[in-house]
Amino acid sequence: MNTHAAPGVSALTHLQGLESESIHIMREVIAECEKPVMLYSMGKDSAVMLHLARKAFFPGTPPFPLLHVDTTWKFRDMYAMRDQVAKNSGMQLIVHRNPDAVARAINPFDHGALHTDLWKTEGLKQALTQFGFDAAFGGARRDEEKSRAKERVFSFRSASHRWDPKNQRPELWNLYNPRKLKGESIRVFPLSNWTELDIWQYIHLENIPIVPLYFAAPRPTVQRDGLLLMVDDERFRLRPGEVPVQRSIRFRTLGCYPLTGAVESSAMAVPHIIQEMLLTTTSERQGRAIDHDQAASMEQKKQAGYF
Amino acid sequence: MTGAPTHSSYGAHALAAQDIEAYLLRHQHKSLLRFITCGSVDDGKSTLIGRLLYDSKMIFEDQLATLTADSKRIGTQGQEIDFALLVDGLAAEREQGITIDVAYRFFATEKRKFIVADTPGHEQYTRNMVTGASTADLAIILVDARKGILTQTRRHSYLAHLLGIKKLVLAINKMDLAGYSEARFSAIVAEYRSFADSIGIRDFLAVPISSLAGDNIVTSSENTPWYLGPPLLSHLENVEIDSSALQLRPFRMPVQWVNRPDLDFRGFAGLISEGLVRPGDAVRVLPSGRTSTVARIVTADTDLRSAAAGQSVTITLTDELDCSRGDVLAAAEHPPEVADQFEAVLVWMADEPLLPGRPYWLKLATQWVTATIHNPKYQINVNTMEHLAARTLSLNAIGIANLSTDKPLIFEPYEKSRELGGFILIDKISNATVAAGMLHFALRRSSNIHWQPLDIDRNAHARLKHQHPRLLWFTGLSGSGKSSIANLVQKKLYALGKHSFLLDGDNVRHGLNKDLGFTDADRVENIRRIGEVAKLMTDAGLIVLAAFISPFRAERRMVREMSLPGEFVEIYVETPLEIAEQRDVKGLYKKARAGELKHFTGIDSPYETPEHPEIRVNTVETTAEQAADEIVAYIMR
After folding, report:
1. Residue contact A165–B101, C-beta within 8 A
2. Distance from the Cα of residue B472 to its chain's centroid
3. DSSP state letters, A227-277
4. Chain-wide mean pLDDT for chain B?
5. pLDDT at A283
6. Chain B environment of A181 (Cβ under 8 Å)
């Protein structure tokens, strides 16, 4: 964030402070880890994280590749965004698809929780092991979910990628301890202290490009199990009696399209998204089927290696 | 539930509804306050945080539904909403009903964004509170109005003060259960004030609240008309933030990373820890001490005209200087100190206790060094503030100790700078973060290191070798056994892993001093040169053994005075002339007696016996082996 006037007169704004902290975290990783990678999921948090990385290493290109752990079930707009971003950033893009999940044609219609487990959790572990990455940036924020609130900025994973919530290193001041044994890795969360509102404000202020699905548009939808789902391609299995209906919708978070609920909206610009968010009454992750599986589900997934 | 949430102070949402652009403009200029809440399980800490989140509309309907369901299932408030359940995160903790780690919460009002570090009050979790307090600008100390000041209240206040938190709020909670009694409130405040004074807390704000009922949280409560101060939230919104004061200090930026995308660009990336910097400013690179001028402050948007404490920037200099990660860019005329021995306070955070003498990694800002902690001077009982004798520090112990580092650290006392005074210790085997530390002061300054670029001082060399430099000066008659004993001593030192070097007639007379004879003047010059060489070697950290007749007291004193106090060890190898002459290993006495050698000590040149040698070896009564052991024992003690 630019401060052309002398800032000596007042404290930094909260967004300047958050930006600065995130850049500091990224630079610590580059200085102290051997082979970092940035997880890129095409969502708004990924967009902000990548934007911050480009600032952190300007005028150079961020000195690490982007990794997309693909499930083959993302929205088409997300794939288009991914390829565009890779082209513009000048960074290497690695796309990993779990060969086991490919072979077994794992999909969200037939396989439920297994879909997330195989494509995302296992796929991520495979990619990190295969390429030997010792640090992976993720866009998770502490305000997303209760168990995230206690997550460190530098989160240690055993050689088998497990997270032990009782055995994390204390993090004091802005001193991070990245020392690890061979095979161990770190997940690093530079956006830990950002909230959903901060992310949107920053996207607005910095004009960061985001997937068009965040903006309202008429899209084919069906109502199912309390979620408003978008029929993004011909693989969507309509149940008997279901007929896609055009609704003006947008998404607050993006994931696999058959698992991601939309909200009806007319917000076509970032300020209006923020306006809707401030006046809304449901939390961001509510649109995600994954959290409703069982109590404390996110925590269990994290212990198993989910990001 | 009493005290329904009021949104009156959060006009935010009304504005957002009417004019979102105006709302955004206003919210771009919010500042950030980080605070920590301290209290025990029963003080209502989680309830307070839950209340702040709820009142600032950070809780959504779906979360509220979960909360309501959870409250009925495992809550402690009967059918009422149990706010504490909002903030107790991990599954195991939910079962036990306690928070066991630091959790960070976020909420915002019109004026500020807040990051709350929620830390537990249990005794065994000092480390969590210290962690949470390390980044906080303000601490809320919760007290149960019915119980008053408890041991843990003192402990939390002490820890907050120790971590340098200058803004304290004493939140006297559960006033509803204490009949909103002014007398009760005043008594608690008076007791706290006397404690606060005793540990050096200068100021605090006391607020009577009920986090359950909502009194004096967002709006002033009608139940406490006698309380004239601000409600808790408006204090949090208006209290001055320390970071503005940081900008007034001299500029410092620990270098994190050197940005060299191509041959034409070389930028130093870092987070400015103190002060302000502008292009054209004179800066000094520490520890080298070289100076240059700021050329540009580069960002992805445009170059900045200035940057201040708290900003992450990339700075280019007008000169090509050696500067890398771990160095500090500082205001040229006001550089921070550089030293390698300190007094510090340590908070031990690992199950494995401190091992004095063991090398640990120490990370301070972007510097990594190896540090050795000396025996603690004392441990602090965090409940009573008493000083206790301690040989080690175990989990959650706080103690004062000296420490030495293998390389000089660029630092400031913690009370001046969290960034350049706070450090962590890391176990070299397990890689665990075992302690947090705060530097008090340097025990000894590395001499003028700012002004002598690249000067690795003698202490640094010696520490690398894990030894104290010495000059063992063997003096005695020819044939007394100086070289034999010195040789043995050197072998024994080698076996102990000590680096030494032996200077004797054989390796000096043939090279360095081959132009010198045996006149008195030449003997003096001989010893002077040897003394200078020995000094260079001790500067390099070596234990130097010098075996020379060195007959004159004055020359021996000269060498002694060239050395640092305690470094010169005079060893008088005492052998009566007759015995030395009997041994006559090299046949020199014979030649001297025959007049073939002039100026031979003991024959036609005097030997001045040492008056106060550190060690006296009588080679008639002791063997060379025994003498060598005695000498090694002397210097190793």
Report:
1. yes
2. 35
3. EEEE--STT--PPTT---EEEEEE-SS-SBGGGB--EE----SHHHHHHHH
4. 85
5. 57
6. 431
B20 touches chain A (CB under 8 A): yes
| Inside any domain, residue B456 | no
- Give the count of beta carbons closer than 10 Å to the beta carbon of residue B35: 21
Average pLDDT, integer, range B449-472: 71
**Same domain (yes/no): B378, B279:** no
Residue B409's domain comprises 340-448
Using a CB–CB cutoff of 8 Å, tell me whether B108 touches chain A: yes
Residue limits of CATH 3.40.50.620 in chain A:
13-198+296-304
B152 found inside a domain:
yes
Rounded Cα distance, A180 and B426, in Å: 11
| Closest-CA distance of chain A to residue B174, Å | 26
Q: Chain A partners of B29 at a C-beta cutoff of 8 Å?
A: 13
* Cβ-defined contact of A24 to B257 (cutoff 8 Å): no
The answer to whether B256 contacts A31, with C-beta atoms less than 8 Å apart, is yes
Distance CA B459, CA B567 (A): 13
A75 pLDDT tier (thresholds 50, 70, 90): very high
Contact (CB, 8 A) for B601 and B478: yes
> Which residues in chain B have their CB less than 8 angstroms from residue A208's CB?
none
DSSP secondary-structure letter at A149?
Answer: G
Distances (CA, A) of B259 to A62, B328, B458: 10, 15, 33
Place of tokens 């580059």: A30
Domain count, chain B: 4
A201·B28 Cβ contact <8 A? yes
Q: How many Cβ pairs closer than 8 A exist between chain A and B?
A: 223
B416 and B366 together in one domain:
yes
Backbone angles phi, psi at B44, to 5 degrees: 85, 30
DSSP state, A153? Answer: S
**Dist. CA B577–CA B476, nearest whole Å:** 10
d(CA B627, CA B633): 10
Instruction: Search chain B and give the residue with CA nearest A194.
Output: B106
Let me know if residue B361 belongs to a domain. Answer: yes
Residue B187 CA to residue A192 CA, distance in Å, equals 41
Q: Are B216 and B232 in contact (CB under 8 A)?
A: yes
Question: What letter represents residue A43's amino acid?
Answer: G
Q: Kindly give the interhelix angle for B182-199 and B151-162, rounded to the nearest 10 degrees.
A: 50
Active-site positions of B read 550
Does the pLDDT at position A302 exceed 60?
no
- Interface contact flag, A177 B433, Cβ < 8 Å: yes
In this structure, the answer to whether residues B109 and B195 fall within a common structural domain is: yes
Instruction: Report the range of poorest mean pLDDT among A1-15, B320-334, B392-406.
Output: A1-15
Q: Is the pLDDT of residue B325 over 90?
A: yes
Query: End of a domain among B399, B423, B448?
Result: B448
Of A2, A6, A31, the CB nearest to B302: A2
Q: Are both B345 and B395 inside the same structural domain?
A: yes
Tell me which chain B residues have a C-beta less than 8 angstroms from the C-beta of A30: 257
Quick one: B324 and B349 in the same domain?
Answer: no
Q: Is the ipTM of this complex over 0.95?
A: no
CB-CB under 8 Å, A27 with B60: no
Determine which of B257-271, B302-316, B349-363 has the lowest per-residue pLDDT on average.
B349-363
CB A157 within 8 A of CB A305: yes
Looking at the structure, do residues B224 and B316 belong to the same domain, yes or no? Answer: no
- Would you say residue B1 lies in a domain? no
Q: Report the distance separating Cα B393 and Cα B352, nearest Å.
A: 9
Q: Which CATH architecture has domain A13-198+296-304?
A: 3-Layer(aba) Sandwich (3.40)
CA A138, A141, A145, A148 torsion-angle sign: positive
| B52/B193 same-domain check | yes
Q: Can you tell me the distance from the alpha carbon of B544 to that of B538, in angstroms, rounded to the nearest whole number?
A: 7
The pLDDT value recorded for residue A122 is 92
